[in-house]
Amino acid sequence: MSAHTTLEPLASASSGPLTGNVRVPGDKSISHRSLMLGAIAEGETIIEGLLEGEDVLASAAAMRQLGASVEKIDGRYHVTGTGLGAFRQPEEVLDFGNAGTGVRLCMGLVGTHDFTTRFDGDASLRSRPMGRVLDPLRLMGTEVIEGEDDKLPLALRGPKTPVPIEYALPMASAQVKSCVLLAGLTIPGTTVVIEPVRTRDHTENMLTGFGAQLEIIDQPDGSRRIALEGLPKLTGQRVTVPADPSSAAFPLVAALIVPGSDITIENVMMNPTRIGLIDTLIEMGGDITLSNQRVSGGETIADLRVKSSALKGVTVPADRAPSMIDEYPILAIAAACAQGETVMLGLEELRVKESDRLTATARGLKLNGVDCTEGPDTLTVRGGPVPGGGMVPTSLDHRIGMSFLILGLVAKQPVSIDNRRVMDTSFPGFVDLFETMGARFDTGTGA
Ligand code: S3P
Question: Are 147 and 103 in contact (CB under 8 A)?
Fold first, then answer.
C-alpha cells in the first residue's frame, strides 16, 4: 500500500459552469463486502463495477492472503471462496492501508478463527480506535496477542470454541455492527447486535443475499435488533455495485455551487441509510431531480440531475448523522456558499474518521477565509463569498482533499491541498472526471 508520504500538492481554481453526464466509481461499502462475502462463500462470486480504489484493493489483497482467489477477468472481479471457516493462517501481515472499513470488517471475518492474524495500516489507520471492534471480539473469546492501546499494528488469535454474544453497540457504527455479524457467521448459535439508531444496512442485505438467516426487528425505542444464525451455507453470487452516493456528493455539491452548472450523475445508489446529504441539500434549496429510478442488485438506484442553486443555511439534526456520516466535509463546502448559517449537530463520530474530520474541516474553511465555529460535536458555518487562497492539510484524508478542491471552484483565489494522491483511496479519476465537466485544476501551490 502506498503511504502517500511524498506530498504532491494540487490546486483548483474558479471555474465556468459544470456540464455533462457523469458516472462516479462503485460504492466503497458494497465493494469491500462483496469481496469479503465472496471470500467465505462456496463457489464463485462475480462482481461488476467494483470500486478500484486503494481501500478496496487492500481488502482484495487480504482475501487472497487468507486463501480466496480474486481475479479480474474482462473488467469483472471473480472471487472463489474458501467456504465458511476455511481461511488459512496468513503468512504476512494484512496491510489495510487507509481503510477503516476493510480492517474492522476483516477483524470480524477472521478474528474468531483458531490461528493468529496480524493487521496493520498507514499512519491514519494506526491512529484510529480499534477497541470498538476488539471489545465484542474479546467477548466471543478472541485474544489480542500483540498491540498497544487497541491500535494497529496488532495481532488477533481466535479461540478454540468461540461463543455467540448479544451486543448493544455503544456508538452508531456500521463497521462495528458488521464486524460482530461477520464474526457470528463462524459461531454456532445466534449472534445478536442491537444498534441504537439505524446505520447503513449493506452487511445485513448482502448476507441475506448470500444465504444467511437474519431476523431484523425495529424496536419501539427506535433501536434495531439484528439476530444472525451461525454457520449458514453461503453461496457465491453475482453482485452489481451501484455508484457510491458518498462519491456522487462531490459533483453534486460542485454543480449546486458553481453558477450556471447543469449535470446528471448516473446510477447513484439511493439506499435510505445513505442519502441524508441529498435530503439536506434539497432543504437548503438545491435543485436536484431524481429520474430513471430502478432496482439493481437489490438496491434502488437513480440518475440525479443537478442545477446550480441559491442555497440557504439550515440546521442539520443529530439523528441524520448516520445517513450522511462521510458527507459533512462536503456539506460544509455547500454551507460556505449558502446564505446564512448552517448548523451541524451530533458530529462526535467525525473525530475518529481518516482524520479528525471536524477539526480538519474547520481548519480548511478558516484557511480559506470562511467564517465557522467548531464545537465539541458541532460545526457552524456562516456562508458568503469565499476568499480562498489557502493550502489545506489533508492528513491522509481523501474526503478532506476532495471537499476543498470543490471549494476552490468557487473561491476568488485558488484553493490548494497538500496531497493530490489522497483521492486514490476512494475516487480514482477524480480530477479527470471534474475536468470533463469543466473544472480547472493546477499542480503546484496554485499561487
Ligand atoms: C462504513 C461505515 C462508516 C463510514 C465508512 C464506511 C461501512 O463508518 O464512515 O466510510 O462501510 O460500514 P462507521 O461505521 O465507523 O461510522
Answer: no
Tell me how far apart the alpha carbons of residues 21 and 185 are, in angstroms, rounded to a whole number: 41
Domain 28-240, architecture per CATH: Alpha-beta prism (3.65)
Tell whether pTM > 0.85: yes
Please give all residues whose beta carbon lies within 6 A of any atom in ligand 1, as ranges: 29, 101, 173-175, 178, 200, 325-326, 349
54 CA from centroid of ligand 1 (Å): 16
Sorted by where each begins, the domain ranges of the chain are 10-26+242-443, 28-240
The interaxial angle of helices 100-110 and 28-40, nearest 10 deg, is: 20
> Which of helix, strand or coil describes residue 31?
helix
**Phi, psi at 408, each rounded to 5°:** -60, -25
Alpha carbon of 309 to ligand 1 centroid (Å): 30
pLDDT tens column, 343-382: 999 999 999 999 999 999 999 999 999 999 999 999 999 9
**CA–CA distance, 180 with 48 (Å, rounded to integer):** 27
Catalytic site residues? 326
* Higher pLDDT among residues 1 and 120, named by residue: 120
Give the CATH number of domain 10-26+242-443; options: 3.65.10.10, 3.40.50.620, 1.10.287.470, 3.20.20.120. 3.65.10.10
Report phi then psi at 304, rounded to 5: -115, 115
